[in-house]
């Protein structure tokens, strides 16, 4: 068994040392650029943690870990075109640095490359791995479609929001864990529990993201806060405030979210003061803890020695206590 | 064994009767629309022909046939965004009817759906099928990248052009044939020969396309001819004329291809008169026949009864004698 710290280093090194450069450069340069933008490499890490839980062999999980990171980066690459996001992790996004056409095509190639890494496995498990990756990809796209649909809808429920972030975030975390677990011959029962764990952690993670975007310290967070409010993003915070606010508060929120032309500092202040009046931060934290606890309950049911679950428990706690 | 006509009808019906509609509609409506635009369904047909060659069971090949048609339509969907093409087969393209973001995301989902259909197979052959689809997808993207790169280059050789159309067209035909063949337990040796057949047919098909775009009868072809010339597309015809033309002819061609602002009717007349002076049409037809013959040579080497190869031979002849 490895320590969490060892696995974190392995995940980072694994992606850093993998080269995606080849001819035609017009296709592979954007891929190399996108894959080397840094980040916490959470998905390959989860893949390695899972492999380490069910066997001591993390070597066998490495191709799957690369596959899931490629898949994740492919979704970022296409999402950034759709959202017209100029920056990611402080650097130009792929479509900004190259162009939209190259970003579309390089993204498509990355999707295929993710599958190529799964071909490193014997046919006995290759089909299971392909099935996990495929189902996850479809659900992540469905999550993104719901997210786009919600932008133009005024009647999004909290339940719908939770389902959307489960699809957009939880599913890929689950994919990462299950890919690693399958390479370590995990049982079907334990795979189901890992899936529950990851989906709930994903929801908690995304609610945490909503909180951080609204209230974190600019210096620590590393990006401008309040962006969700300026962009009229229907976060958990916004939807909860709409649910429990007075008619007057609801009307102010709806009015402020009806246009992107309001002066942003003042808009942010008004929205945040409503959130504070309604104790939205506390409610959101409670919700986050609720989903984290659900995740831990699934983890506890996994049928292996307690000590083998420690890395995943520790990982989830670090994720919940992050400030960026 | 089936007749070619029976298989053609099966291929068309197979795609027509498959529904892709489900929630979220924002994601699946563009997919259903894209998949139901008609067309000759050449790729599912090839998949069924191959299955019928090596077994009499085309039922088993049907999921693979749907997979390859989804993959093909996914590439069209993203290509149309990149080329900003408003029409395909006389109808609005997906990105025009919906929007670019939906076309990107629905395309991504189609790519995943293609794999989902391959999960219908036992793990004994699923990995082989996934490998064929994955390698083909990567090479088709590489072909598209070369095509984009050639737009801005003035030194594209005929060899490079042939390689590009092999990747863009031949590879997917090969993928279709090999998927079908694998579902019918074709040997590795025969798979290699099918691959050679399809890649060469793909090249011949594309050269035929270049000829049809330039000289076919508008009434029969169903779309405006001369579009490649107006769009400055570096086709086989153009590259061959550059190769064998006099310095004066080369200069005229380069000059006319240096801008999209020339009056199109006159531009087309001048380019076509150079093509005619240099007998480019005859040279292109000879080249087409050369690649068709290469394909037939590979077909002849396939180790099965001659009568089992008839459908594929007939198919290739119909393809070479098409006028649209």
Concise synopsis of the structure shown:
The structure is a homodimer of 324-residue chains. The first copy, chain A, has 324 residues and is mainly alpha-helical.
Summary keywords:
homodimer; 324 residues; mainly alpha; Farnesyl Diphosphate Synthase; 2 strands; globular
Overall description:
- 2 copies of one chain form a homodimer.
- The first copy, chain A, has a domain at 4-186: Farnesyl Diphosphate Synthase (Orthogonal Bundle).
- The first copy, chain A, is mainly α.
- In chain A, a hairpin with a 2-residue loop joins strand 1 and strand 2.
- The first copy, chain A, has helices at 4-17, 25-35, 42-54, 62-83, 94-97, 100-118, 123-151, 158-183, 188-215, 218-221, 227-230, 236-244, 247-256, 264-277, 280-301, 310-320; strands at 87-88, 91-92.
- The first copy, chain A, has a two-stranded antiparallel ribbon with strand order 1-2.
- The mean pLDDT of chain A is 94.
- Chain A is globular.
- The A-B interface holds A 24, 26-27, 78, 81-82, 101-102, 104-105, 107-109, 111-113, 115-116, 118-119, 123-124, 126-128, 130-131, 133-135, 137-138, 141-142, 144-146, 148-149 and B 24, 26-27, 78, 81-82, 101-102, 104-105, 107-109, 111-113, 115-116, 118-119, 123-124, 126-128, 130-131, 133-135, 137-138, 141-142, 144-146, 148-149.
